Amino acid sequence: MRNLLLASAVMALTAGAALADGTVRMGTEGAYPPYNFINDAGEVDGFERELGDELCKRAELTCEWVTNEWDSIIPNLVSGNYDTIIAGMSITAERDAVIDFTQAYFPPDPSVYVALSADVDVSSAVVAAQAGTIQASHVAASGAALVEFATPDETLAAVRNGEADAVLADKGFLVPFVDESNGELVIVSDDVMLGDGIGVGVRESDAELKAKFDTAIASMKEDGTLNTMIAKWFDGMQAGY
Amino acid sequence: MFSFCTDPSALDGLDWLACYLTNGKHMAFWASFGTVILLLLITAPVALAFGFAGAIAARSHVLPLRLIGRTYTAMVRGVPDIVFFLFAPIAMDQGFEWLRHKAKCPDWDAPIRQGNDFVVCAEAKLPLSASPQWVHETYGFTLAVIAFAVVFGAFAANVLFGAMRAVPHAQIETAGAYGMSERQAFWRILVPQMWIYALPGLSNLWMILVKATPLLFLLGVEDIVYWAKELGGAKTSLFAYPHPDWRLYYFLGLLVFYLGLTKVSEVILARLTRRLSHGQATVAGEAQRKAAA
Question: Which terminus of chain B has a smaller tally of CB atoms within 10 A, N or C?
Fold first, then answer.
């Protein structure tokens, strides 16, 4: 009896195989508002959710969202646990050596330093950044003391509790926190331009998927929907695509 | 959850809290406590079975078996847990997919390893890309159980191996004198008596297992530590329930949970020790006999 059940379960699973083509698993971090985050209902939400769903619609793909730790987000892509990374990941030469990127769907990120007081000298202070980000590389190269954290949220918490003097992260992520901190947090630098924009990461062997997303992004740039979407999620920001 | 939760921004005080603690995200948090308990309940017996098999293999008269048993315990005990947990599930996953790939897509001509990429045909994916999310989660959870069972099984094997040796040799000799075969003596004399010697070691292992469950997070299973971190982080007004950094409270909650779990375990283990000591030629067994007499 148990074997029978097992056999029918196996058959049910293999029957699904025929439908396997076409489902694209979208990998994201789910901890970087407003790019991507887990909303109060426990679902992936944010700019990239809306963008990704629209891209899938235009490319006529069925998409499913999965979350993964930032640290292991690239290894899990190349080992095939999901098919894309759409997690505010800037296009850099180092990452491009391991995975492929579509064209940028978000302009080169302006990053900013945020601290508790305006007189922090960011070139010699202790600066928090998320591990494995372009901001972390930038801080390391700038001569400041870098402290790395696994999630964006922890970098900000480190500044609040005094563990770090300042945090360097994407402006789009930091500004809402600064605005709602009642003056506790301040922006202490001009925009720091890093990276070549944000693109969708795909496996290097997955040229077909990359082409589909490239076309979809291009069409969204053309008809202005991408600009509207960026303005909606990033407080009226002008992307200029 | 409650009818008054439709507009969270209009709420305050207890109503707000009631709605906050019952939103979708918190439901996932509460459910993850079940995940942790389930992991413990499944892993413990499986790890014990691994350990028992390992201990028997390590005592075997057959040389290859003995080597397998000893290598298993020595190797797994020697490798740091984190390295093992990061490596084993990915290796297992790719191993399974490779086997399925060979069986299901014999006419696939592209290489499986393309640079960094591990590419198998869509039908060989485990689980299939089209499978619903719960299948993926169950699969990840199963890999986690196997990884935990292999690691804790190796420690259990060592404990049981020692416990089997601790049973007084005279017992086995007497069994032989009564005409029992080696097999009978093992199952009827040695195994029932070894548990009392194994229990201190096994109870330590259980406690370590309880505390090791946050490693689930490394394996991509969304456990209580993941959710505590996610829920506790500061939330802007982008969320329906904005709040400052509350991780301290969430982690205090976890502290209470883990302390409670270990306390319950201690009580149960103490009872088990009392039962297993009964009639044994140990100090505790002797004390029980004297108290009864």
Answer: C
CB-based contact A179:B255 (threshold 8 Å): no
Quote the distance between the C-alpha of residue B91 and its chain's center: 18
Contact state of B93 with A203 under an 8 Å Cβ cutoff: no
Please report the residues numbered 44 through 73 in chain A whose beta carbons come closer than 8 angstroms to any beta carbon of chain B.
62, 64, 66-69, 72
Give the range among A135-149, A158-172, B229-243 with minimum mean pLDDT.
B229-243
The C-alpha of A213 sits at a distance from chain B's nearest C-alpha, in angstroms, of 18
Specify if B2 maps to a domain: no
Enumerate the domain spans of chain A. 23-107+196-233, 110-193
Bridge-based pairing of strands A36-38 and A31-32 is antiparallel
**How would CATH label the architecture of A23-107+196-233?**
3-Layer(aba) Sandwich (3.40)
Contact A177 B247 (CB under 8 A): no
> What pLDDT does B1 receive?
61
- What is the C-alpha separation between B33 and A137, in angstroms, rounded? 37
Chain B within 8 Å of A153 (Cβ-Cβ)?
yes
pLDDT tens digits, one per residue of B49-80:
999 999 999 999 999 999 999 999 998 888 88
Q: Residue A16: pLDDT above 70?
A: no
- CA–CA min distance B59, chain A (Å): 33
pLDDT in tens, B153-191: 999 999 999 999 999 999 999 999 999 999 999 999 999
Q: Do domains A23-107+196-233 and A110-193 have the same CATH topology?
A: yes
A163 touches chain B (CB under 8 A): no
Q: How far does Cα A110 stand from its chain's mean position?
A: 14
Q: According to the model, what pLDDT value does residue A9 have? A: 44
- ∠ CA B137-A19-A25, nearest 5°, is 45
Q: Does A141 touch chain B (CB under 8 A)?
A: no
User: B11 lies in a domain?
Assistant: no
pLDDT of A21 higher than 80: no
CATH number at residue B87: 1.10.3720.10
Say whether B230 and A205 touch across the interface (CB within 8 A).
no
Residue B6 included in any domain: no
How many structural domains is chain B composed of?
A: 1
**Residue A206: pLDDT above 50?**
yes
Give the domain extent around B32: 21-292
Asked whether residue A4 carries a pLDDT value surpassing 50, the answer given is no
The reply to whether CATH 3.40.630.30 applies to domain A110-193 is no
Does residue B231 belong to any structural domain of this protein? yes
> What is the average per-residue pLDDT within B78-93?
83
Stretch A84-90: mean pLDDT, rounded?
Answer: 93
